[in-house]
Structures are given as structure tokens and as C-alpha cells.
Fold each of these.
Amino acid sequence: MRTDERGAGPALPSRTLGRSGVRVTALGFGAAAVAGLYEAVGEDEAASAVEAAWDAGIRYFDTAPHYGLGLSERRLGAALRAMPREEFTLSTKVGRVLVPYDGGGEDRAAGFAVPATHRRMWDFSADGVRRSLEDSLTRLGLDRVDLVLLHDPDDHEDQAFREAYPALEELRSQGVVRAIGAGMNQSRMLARFLADTDVDAVLCAGRYTLLEQGALDALLPAAEAAGKSVIIGGVFNSGLLADPEQGARYDYAAAPEDVLRRAVRMREITESQGVPLRAAALRFPFGHPAVASVLVGARSAHQVRDAAEQFHRSVPDTVWQALRAQDLLAGGVPVPGRRVP
């Protein structure tokens, strides 16, 4: 669809990542789901989801080579090429290089319902970082990305700090990218990135949600003290906080019974206050001033529109008070005010 045929969409609040000058909308679009995360997604459905995000005012989009073996980047790039490049912020990740594979089968073991056309090869070398970014730009069909993140360097800590991070720093100094950082499902190493490097932002998935706040111990205070930004992914903890029912996922696997019961109790409390659990989960991270954006993964236009609607809902103070009263939210955990961040 031509850009001039689309509405501009309602404005969303935005923040700058650290001192980079790169701005992200408070609500961002995580593009793993449109690459067939857990179940297949058709081309038209994926394109409609990205278009719905644009129409909802979302101007921050996140992807990675890992998502659907490059399918996320190809689909997101195809949709965003119709949009004015200066109006959106795009992040992708490095650390996994895709190598062609002709053995057949599907990528189900990695969580994606796509043909196994490639293998992922861990590579946090300087050359691997540059190659990964070049490959990503080819798949995206765009001339640049704004933010590049080291992706899941959990088992490659030494090489990530010794080789991959300096390569990102060089790319930033050359103007190839505008902002750099790391994205992980843990907070310890992300806190080290904030302390030991000059990253602009980190993406923390699943560790600062209504269910768990491990990132509050060191990561978020470190970011605030350094004037750097945290992007929150996995705000629904793999879907549990979106729909806490039997079979719901938590951390990419079936939710344990005790965690499921906790999420169900949270839903009962928020709904008793007239607020869907999804709305409280989306708003919660903004209680901390270091949080710049929350990414929502959506596989359809309907899910995108629902996320935008929940984001704009008012969440009264009584919701947080009720959760505290039932020992579902600790007293020292910061909570947001009534206004949209």
C-alpha cells in the first residue's frame, strides 16, 4: 500500500534511547510472532499486523535473524519499505549467522513453524557482527537500521565483550548505526553491559513484568544512574499474562501450576477493578523511569489493535494497591501513575 494512502495513525508517546538521539514509541512492535513463532502465520496476515501497528501509531519495530530463520526480517522489511524511513525506528540483532541448509524439515525445535532452510551459527566475533548486519540489511531491503543489539550472548560472554561489543562501537562511531546495545532473557549480564560498556540501551525480555521483577535488583537502577534506557520485551511472559488459562506458556514453555495460579489471581483482581490483566501488564513496566518502551509481539492485526487499546486504558491506583494487598506485588516495586507514559 502506498504511504500517501494510509492515515498517519494516533500519536504514541516516545522517548530517546540514552543519549543516542534515537527515539522509540512507548509501545513497540516485536516481530517474532509474524515469523511463525509457535504456529504458522501467512504473508497477508503478517503484513496486516505490521500495517495495523503503523495505524495504531507504533513507530518502533524490532526483529532478529533468529526469528523464523530470517523470515521476520524479510516480512517486516517488505511492510516498512512503504513507510517514510525517517518516521520509524528499527532494531535488529547480531550473534547468530544464518547458514544455508538443505536437509529439509521444519524449525520447530527453535520454536518457529517455518521450513528449516538455514541453520543458526553462533558468532560473536567482530567479523560475525559485520556479516550478520550486512545479511540483515539484505533481508530487510533497507539501507540502515537504527539500533543493533547483541542477541542472547549468555554462553558467549567473554567473546561478546571482547570482540562483538567493540565491533558495534566501531559501527556506531562510523555512523553505520545510531545506537547499540544487547538483548537477553536475563538481567545480570545486561547490568554488566550498562556498567562496563557505552551501550545506549538494553532489551530485557521477561524479567520485568507484573509476574516477576528480577531486573529491579541491579539492571534498572544501573540504567537510571547511567542515563541509559531499557526496552522491555516479553511483557506477557510468553502469553501467560495475556490469557492465563491451562496450557498457557510461560518463558516459552507450559506454565507451571503455581505460576499459572498466580496469574489467574492477578486477573481476578484487575478485572474486579474493571481493568483487563493485559492492560495492567502493559502499563506496569513504566513505573520505572529507565523504561523507554515495551515491545508487544502480535501475529495479527486484531492482536495489534487490542494491544494498542489496552495500552491506552486508564489503570487506577487501586489496581496496584489491590495487588499489593494480596501479596502479588511487593511494596517496594514502583508502579506507574495514571497517565500514559
Note: The radius of gyration is 19 Å.
Amino acid sequence: MTSPEAEQGGVAGEAQATPQDGAPRPEERLERAVRAAEQALIEYEIAVETFRVEVENFSRLHHQKLGPMYARLDELDAEIAEARAARTGDPEDRRKADEARARVLPMPGVEELFHGWMDGEGLFPEAVAMLTDQPVRPPQRVRPSDEARKLYRELARKAHPDLAQDDTERARREEFITRVNAAYARGDETLLRELAEEWAKGPAPQERGPSRAEELYARLEWLAQRKELLSLVAKELEESAIGAMLRLAPDDPDRLLEEIAEKLLADVSRREAELAELLR
């Protein structure tokens, strides 16, 4: 049986031998693994958040530019169904007409949904102008610039809450990152620069001190769980309708919107011709 003194002597001997043979202690290797996992998670979170903002902005532009066309198509479908029901007198056609009309009845929050394109009374003048090929002010671009993306990534890497060593520091970082995310979502490059200056003046993040192996293993497990949750978020974004559309043209989403708009305008023309034929 080895005595405590002998164990201490053995440990001391190992500690002295380590610098000579260059072999790191197990805790040191574990610490490096934890730091690598932390950085990998942060990069993954940045990628997921970047894609989330792109999906959100593309969704907003999609509704602004195409919302009136979808509304016009729904209205034409209702008018066509009503005209067909009036011509045939068939109860089934009347039922279909009622269902089609119900889909275009005023709904609470419709103005917010279409971001100012229409309300319960119908299309706004800007929407009518667009549908009739008249000049109309394009929707405001909110996609962050390349510089804004660069600033956001730098701030996220420096101030990420996962680098906090205690609850107080984590709370400070979370509050700061919330403001960073909000500025990035608006594409506010000026505010991102101000936030970068603010962080530079704040308390420097403390370096992680030596940790026990049990704590490091627990940290790795938490990082793995966090990565799994982010993977679910990323999957939902990628499988969403807007996410799928955005992946079709990641480098030129505006052109994709133009192509969809052209198709919808052609659909509107066909519906109008069909309605005119029924009403003739």
C-alpha cells in the first residue's frame, strides 16, 4: 500500500518530469478539448444566427414584395368560384365559392402580416400600382452589409456568454449580445461599431483557470447538449418554406424574388382572363 507521502513524492516527480518530456497533464489535454469545443460551438452559433437573420430578412422582403400578389390571386380565386357558382347553380360550386371567399375575408393583424401592403379594406395604392406595372417604391432592404457581418462575428466571438466564468459575467454578456443581435438584425453598422467600442472599454474577460477533471467533463457534456439544440434550430430553419427558398439562390435572393414575382403576375393574368370568360 502506498503512503500519502509516497504518493506526493510520486506526483512531485511527475510534475518535475512533465516539462522535460513535454507530455501535458491529462487535465491540460482536457482543458484544451473544452476550449476547442467552446470555440466550435460559438462558430456554429454564429452560423445559425447569421442564417436565422437571413431567413427573417428574406421572409420580410418576400411578404413586402409578393404579399399583394398572393392576395390578388386569392381574391381572383374567390371571384372565379363565385362566378362559376352563379352560372351553374350547383350547391357544390356554391360551397366551394363560400370557402374561397372565406379565405380572403378581413383578418385581425393582416396589415402587420403584409407590412403595410393591405388592410381589411383591400390593397393599398402601392400594391395596386405594383400589380398594374406602375412605378412603386421598392421595399426597404434590411439585409446586413458585409461590414456589419464582420463586426457581428467579431463581437460574438469576443463577448459570447459561453465564455463567462461566473453567473454575473454571463448575465453581462447575455445582455450585451442581445443588443448586438438586435443591431445586426437591423443591419445597423453604426450601432455595431459603437457596441464594439463599448466592449473594448469594458472589463476584459478572465482567462479560465485550471479546473478539475469532473468539471471539465461536465462542461463538455453541456457543450454537446447545446450543439444538439442548435442543430434542431438549424434544421427547422433549413426545412422552413423561406429557408428552402433562400437556399435556392443564397448569393442572389433578390433575383429569386423577381422570378417568383414574374410567375405570380402571369398567374394573375391567367386568373383574370378566366374570370372575364366566366362573366362574359
Note: The two ends are 105 Å apart (CA to CA).
Amino acid sequence: MTPVTPQPPALSAPPAPPPDERVGSARLLDRLVVRPEIGALLGAVLVFAFFSVVTERFLSTGGVATWLDDASTLGIMAVAVALLMIGGEFDLSAGVMTASTALVTAVLATRLGWNVWLALLVSLVFALAVGALNGWLVMRTGLPSFIVTLGTFLALQGLNLGVTRLVTGTVQVSGMRSTDGYPSAGFLFASTFTVGGTAFYVSILWWVVATALAAVVLLRTRFGNWIFAVGGSAQSSRAVGVPVVRTKVLLFMTTAGAAWLVGSINILRFTSVQANQGIGLEFQFIIAAVIGGCLLTGGFGSAVGAAIGALIFGMARQGIVYANWNSDWFQLFLGVMLLAAVLVNNALRRRAERVRR
């Protein structure tokens, strides 16, 4: 009879350690930190909460309609400027371009009797041509876009004043309401829709559409990858086959196209335009983009963040009015927000770089 060798008892696997809740929290924090717009979102929440407590009118339906409208046209431009800044460039002619396109539309429609839609088309072609020229000059000459677009800013400002005085004898063009095609064009660009018995301007919808479109292009398309690449390093991008010149020219054209949209909204809503409109707005566009997470060095930023930056502008500007404060305080607010945004954005970028490693 064969002896049976006793077998050692089977060793059971050690129990798995319980999950560390800190790991999950850290991963969530890391995912939030790499989003450029997180700082702007926190700032918007604070501004909203502050003015909601300071003044009751801020949260009324009419108050919401007012500060959303204030932010809408600024937001359209801030989103386009954000794309350009992510691509590593600036456009100081963006503000005066809103007036230039409105003047082209108004002069053609009121002085030459053109249909408003045809005048809008010509002003769009004009805007895109100026944007393409800006981009081509920057890439062809190698000059900083700050210098090139500053020259464009001065040229457009002089053109606006000179042509307007030559055509009308004043610095204003008016009379859009009686032009052919105004009712349909006005409905698309300057009408209102009612929510809760309060009228909201359609420019708010244009702002939402522009933000959504820019976010999709930036995060879901090859062109969006090109924007981040050329903003991070144009030479490295060129080495891996990214069309740097085409990308930057298209970004300048995008900024000019957004200026045309804002100019069209303004001329059709107010039915008149001053030749000196838009001067100084380019800095507000850049500030809104920086508050929204864009770096001045390029390669980092968010279209949604720029829209939130514009929202902060609108809430603060109207909140100060509702609180019956002197409007001069708004300039202090801008300065503080700009400095805070630059510091926060730099800290977030460094944290994001560590996370991605």
C-alpha cells in the first residue's frame, strides 16, 4: 500500500488593501487642473455670488438679460481672440475692426442704396481680407503681431474717420432702419426672444454658438491641434508637418470674421455707427481671454474660458451699476482680475505640465 504524502494547506491570497480615497481625489483634482478655464469658472462663481448678495436687481430677470447682453458681443470677440492667442499671436486691430465693418455696411446701404444683405457680404469680404493681410504680413516679415496689427489699427482708425467725413460730412452714419433688407437682417442679428416675459437679445445666442463652435474646433479637430502646436513652438510644428502659415493666417481671419459679426449686430441694433467706435475694446478682448485661461506666451488656453471671462466682465460691469457705485471702480476690478488671472494661469499651467508627465 502506497503511503500518502500529506499536502501542505493551500495558501490563501492576502486580502486586497482598501482603496485609498485620496488617490481618487487626487485624480479628480488633476483632471480639473489641466483645464485652463477652471480659474475663470471659480472667479465667475465668486463674482456672481458677490453681486447677488450686494444688490437684488442683479438676479432679476431683467438684470440677467442686461448682463448677459453686455457679455455677449464681448464674448464673441474674446473667443476668437483666445484662439489667436493660443496660436501665439495678438490682434490689436480687432476693436476698431468692429466699427470698420459696421461703417462699410452702413455706407453701402444708406448712401449707395444697396440691399443690406449685399452690404453685409461686402463688409465680410473686407474683414476677411484685412485679417488675411495681417496674418500674411506677420508670417512674411517675421515682425511681432503686436506691431503689425498696431499699424492696422491706426490705418483703420484713420480710414474710418476720413471716409465717414468725406461721405457724410460728419463722423456718424445713420438711417439703417429705412434701408432695403433691414427687417430680415435685423431679425437675424438684432432681434429679441422672450423668456419669462423678459426680452433677451439674439446676440446671446450668437455668443453661445460661437463659443460651442470654437470649443469643438479647438478640442475635436486637427486644426485645433495645429493651433496648440503653432502656439507652443512654430519651429517644432513646422518640423512635423503642421502648416504654420496657413494656420496663423486663418486665425487672423477668424478674429476679423468675429469682428464683422459684432459690427453687424451693432449696426443693425442701433441703426447708426460712429467712426471712432471700437477704440480700446481690443484690450478688453485680450483681458477676457487672459481671465479665461489664455497665456500671453501662447500654446495654452480655452475658448470656453474666454467666454466665461466675458461673462465676468458683464456681471461686474452691470453689478457695479446696480449697486449704485461709481463706474470708475470697474477699472480697478479689471486691473485686479487681470493680475490675478495671470498668476493663476501660470500656476495652473505648471501644475498641468507636472500632471501630464
Note: Confidence is low (pLDDT under 50) at residues 20-24.
Amino acid sequence: MSLRLSTVILPYRRWHEGSREAWQRAEQLGFHTAYTYDHLSWRSFRDGPWFGAVPTLTAAAAVTDHLRLGTLVTSPNFRHPVTLAKELISLDDISGGRVTLGIGAGGTGFDATALGQEPWTPRERADRLAEFVPLLDRLLTEDSVSYEGDFYSAHEARNIPGCVQRPRLPFAVAATGPRGLRLAARHGQAWVTTGDPKLYENGTPEQSIQAIRGQVEKLADACAEIGRDVTGMDKILLTGFTPDRARPLESLDAFVDFAGRHRELGFTEIVVHWPIADSDFAADEKVFEQIAMEAPAQLGRGVGA
């Protein structure tokens, strides 16, 4: 089974002070996709520089040629489907059809309260995502959309000419619960997981593998419910949140072993964070680049392609 290698470039640097060069270098290294987080701020970066995802991806589209671009992930926490659809159609056009939308329910961090609201409960987040994703699907595929829901409305929202990618740009739906997995099965061209967060602190890599295997099986069940073959769906692992943490980036051999074990679970794409010194994503840049350039050959045809 082929496996692609992608990266996440966090938007914490000014464009002309290292950010532009990182996106261009990602293309030179052969990464399949370069994603960024779609947050207003994030965890330890909250009190430092942090830039918007869509403008950053637009700038990245202008200085790259074939690198795919995307979010990991966008959520309803501060987004509305009508305005988001317009931005995505514009970004897809500027990039020449190179955009993937990672989308999920969001969490309880800074995004959840920055607009002045109380954080939503897990059920409320799931309820909103269940309405957000189908409406966004319509907005990206229909010229005019009107809709009245419990959380979102659209009145003759126009989105002409639509996406360059047809019928729309792909969705990569982040989910582990039953409702989210059903959304992924119905609307996603890909599924995203970070593993089981309950294992991050005290779990083992072996326990993580078992937990992720269970997630993949539940995704297959959700697909089977609607008559979809799960083998035709891309499966993306965003690394850095399993008990392995940064260990897969310590050496080429460590990464090949880690990626190979997850490929056996059916994953088609492994995403690694671009190194950031003095952070949870600290890594040796030389080793990181060696992995980008040499891991594809060791893992077989399709990586980075």
C-alpha cells in the first residue's frame, strides 16, 4: 500500500522572517501536502505571534507550484460555513486546485472562548459539526444555497464559479466518535486521527497501535452502513500526539519503523510537524530533512508522490 508523507507548518513566524522559506522548502523536500493549524492561537503559542490560516495558505499558494495545501483542522469554533466557503473557493482558485480542508469539531482551547462565548460541551460541538459539514458541502457544490438550521443559516448564498476541484475540494474529517465517523464516511474524501488522547501521557506505543486499529475498524463500520468501501478512503495520521511523541523524528530508522507500523493499519498519509525549537515540536532539522528525502524510498512507492 502506498504511503504519502506530509508536514504541518505552524503559522507562528512572520511571512518574511522564515515562514515563506519553510513552505517553499516543504515543496523542495517532496512533501505531498503542507498543512497549517486553523486556530486563533494555540496552547503554548498563545502569548506569541500567530497568523491566520487562510491568508497564510494563500501566500503559500503564490510561492509554490505543485505542493498541496490544507488545514489540520478547521472547526466551527469561530467559523461560519457561508463565509468559510467563499474563502475556500478563492483559495482553491488561487492555488490552482491544490487545497484540502481538514475539518473537525474543535476543542475547548482559546478558539472556544475568543468570541466571548462559553465553551461548548462535547455534545454541542458534535451537534454543530453535524450541521456545519453538510451545509459547507452544499455551499461548495451549488451555485445558490438557502438553509435554516439550528445553528447556521444561509439565504441565497452565491458561490459562483465554485471550486477548481470538482465537485469540490476534498474534506479530511477528523473524528473518533460515532457521529464524527459517520460524517467522515458520508462527506469525507479522507479521515484524520491523532490517536487516542487518553494514552498520550501514560500509554505505550503498542497500546496506541491497538487503539488506532479500533478507530480504523469503527470507520470501516461507518462506511459499511452507507455502502461505502473504506479501502477507497484516505486515512491520515497527524503525528506528535501518540505516546511516541517526537521519537519517530529522532532518526530515519525510527521514523520508517513508526510509519511502517501505521501503514499496516491502512494509513495512506503520515503528517509530521515542521521542527520548532523550544516547543513540543522540537526536532533536529537535519534529521527531519533526511526523513523527508530518504524515508519514501525505504517505505516504498507512493510516499511523497
Note: Residues 62 and 95 are 7 Å apart (CA to CA).
